[in-house]
Amino acid sequence: MDYSFGLFLVTLPLNLLNSFGLARLFKKAGKPVWHAFVPGLNSITTLDILGHNRYQVFLDLVPFVNIYQYVKNTVELLRVFGEERSFRKTIAITFGWIYLPYFASKSTTKYLGTISSLPIQDKSGKKSVAREWWDAIVFAVVAATLIRWLIMEAYTIPTPSMENSLLVGDFLFVSKFHYGTRTPRTPLQIPLTHQKIWFTDIPSYVKWIQLPSYRLPGISSVKNGDVVVFNVPRIEENNYGNYDRSSWEDYPVDLKTNYIKRCIAVGGDVLEIKNKQVFVNGKAVEPAPGQRFEYRVVAKDKINQRNIENLGLDGDDYRELGFADPNNPNYFYYQMYLTNEKLAAVKALPYVVSAEVETQGAEAERFPFSKYTASWTGSNFGPLTMPKEGMKIQINDSTLSIYGSTIRDYEDLKDVKLDSGKLTIAGKEVTEYTFKQNYYWMMGDNRDNSLDSRYWGFVPEDHIVGKGFFIWLSIDKYGTFFDKIRWNRFFKLIR
Predict the structure, then answer these.
(1) Structurally, how many domains does the chain consist of?
(2) Is the pLDDT of residue 103 over 70?
(3) Which residues contact 423 (CB under 8 A, 6 or more apart)?
(4) Which 8-state DSSP code applies to residue 257?
(5) Backbone phi, then psi, for 449, in 5-degree steps?
(6) What is the mean pLDDT of the chain?
(7) Within the chain, how many helices (H) and strands (E) appear?
(8) Model pTM greater than 0.70?
(9) Closest CA to 302 of 282, 260, 330
């Protein structure tokens, strides 16, 4: 099924509900009912009812501005039909497909005239233009905060770890309703921010109040193969690039740095990697679409940039190593991240001597950092069992070396000590432990260019943010003026 058609099927019921609500309002305002069911025309008719210039419909095509327009027009639409209560306006903005049909069906809902003709006054008389804009901005912030928390949140892809499924420069919406949104742990925070206030290094939150977090009901659970956004667990990754450990920030769970990877294994699964092939519960995992690996490519000379581009490679896909072999001084070496198809295309070039799996270089330290797993690498790993809610383990030196840090750091326990193969909780030694939540294993599709669970371990269930849903914009930073926007990626569902 085509991605865009799939997205259409997902949103069709919501759009229809919203259109039925608009249809009743249009009828009460003396406008043709059928306008409500025609995209674009329904926006123009809404502007007519509000008394605004029709050319404002073009603002619906401008990213971010269209969000403001939606909020402003929704608030004003309710006002011209007699609704002034702030709470009802917020509900309409957030759940318009439910509220509009209800509001339009009420006998008390009557068209009062355009927005400029409404006899609404405050203590100083009729509201000024500045006051109208301020009200609209406040509603927009409230609505955007609720939508961001409950339904969807916008993200961008900054690194190539998920190529070719997700590309650097993809802008995507992440669904909160699939797995169920989390109640906030850190309520004292500036709306629509994450860790810092925009364009500054000033924290956007305070830790004075930390609440217990719960997950609201969702429509599914995290499954093998899902593309998932999560808060990366370890403090090291949350301070990536800062080499002054004394200045590291230990963020609350809901404010940890967001990562996006593919879920490879869920709680209770047994993971193993053999020669780069991933196995879960003994069964080979089907490669993700466009999955990449790292190769060392040797050419008879430096490859012309145009030929590199003809292969469909950009600056995130390769690195020049130069003339690295004194025995063959004319040979030019590359490090390339290639799909199977592009590997075959590279090998077919007459000036390419070889293209082999990269095996040189020292392996970075890998989770679980145990003497029992010292031989594990990114290409040969495991077997390793994912912790699952209710799973019980016996405590000994071997199990603590693998699961000890997870128990200490993510199980919401107090006074946990790991020492000489012993686990002490609140001053009492325990000989077995039962996990309190599920854990997941996340990996990038660009397997040899991904900072993932192989480096930092399990992702706790309470760190799960949402499911990658669809791409709404994609910008190629290496593209020219005429092909800067990747039009073929608009509104693609993520899989």
Answers:
(1) 1
(2) yes
(3) 395, 400, 404, 407, 416, 417, 429, 430, 433
(4) P
(5) -135, 45
(6) 87
(7) 11, 23
(8) yes
(9) 330
Cβ atoms 50, 77 nearer than 8 A:
yes
- Closest to 167 measured CA to CA, from 6, 312, 41: 312
| Residue owning tokens 């690039």 | 241
CB 227 within 8 A of CB 470: no
Query: Residue 12 has which token pair?
Result: 């069709």
Task: Yes or no: say if 442 and 452 are a contact pair by the CB < 8 Å rule.
Answer: yes
Buried b (16+ CB within 10 A) or exposed e, 225-257: ebbbbbbbbbeeebbeeeeeeeeeeebbbbbbe
Determine which helix (DSSP H) or strand (DSSP E) holds 293, and give its type and residue range. strand 293-299
Please report, as a single letter, which amino acid is at residue 428: K
How would residue 308 be classed by pLDDT, with cut points 50, 70 and 90? Answer: very high
For the packed helices 3-28 and 96-105, what is the interaxial angle rounded to 10 degrees? Answer: 20
22 in Cβ contact with 78 (< 8 Å): no
Look up the domain containing 104 and give its range.
Answer: 3-150
Q: Does any domain span residue 248?
A: no
Spatial contact of 456 and 440, defined as CB atoms under 8 Å apart: no
Nearest to 404 by CA among 442, 368, 378: 368
Cβ-Cβ contacts under 8 Å for 267 (sequence gap 6 or more): 386, 387, 388, 389, 391, 438, 439, 440, 461
**CA 460, chain centre distance (Å):** 16
Question: Most distant CA pair in the chain: distance in Å?
Answer: 89
pLDDT tens, residue by residue, 454-483? 999 999 999 999 999 999 889 998 888 788
The distance in angstroms from the start CA to the end CA of the chain is: 12
DSSP letters of 379-411? SSEEEEEPP-TT-EEE-SHHHHHHHHHHHHHHS
Q: Tell me how long the chain is.
A: 495
Specify if 494 maps to a domain: no
Q: How many CB atoms lie within 10 A of CB 310?
A: 12
- Is residue 416 assigned to a domain? no
| 20 inside domain | yes
pLDDT at position 60 is: 74
CB 470 within 8 A of CB 494: yes
Position 460: which residue type? Answer: P
Question: Closest Cα partner for 266 from 230, 236, 215, 213?
Answer: 230
CB atoms within 10 A of CB 62: 11
Calpha distance 137→116 (Å, rounded): 18
C-alpha to C-alpha distance for 456 and 25, rounded to whole angstroms: 54
Report the C-alpha gap between 77 and 24 in whole angstroms: 13
DSSP state of 184: P
The phi, psi pair for 104, rounded to 5°, reads -70, -25
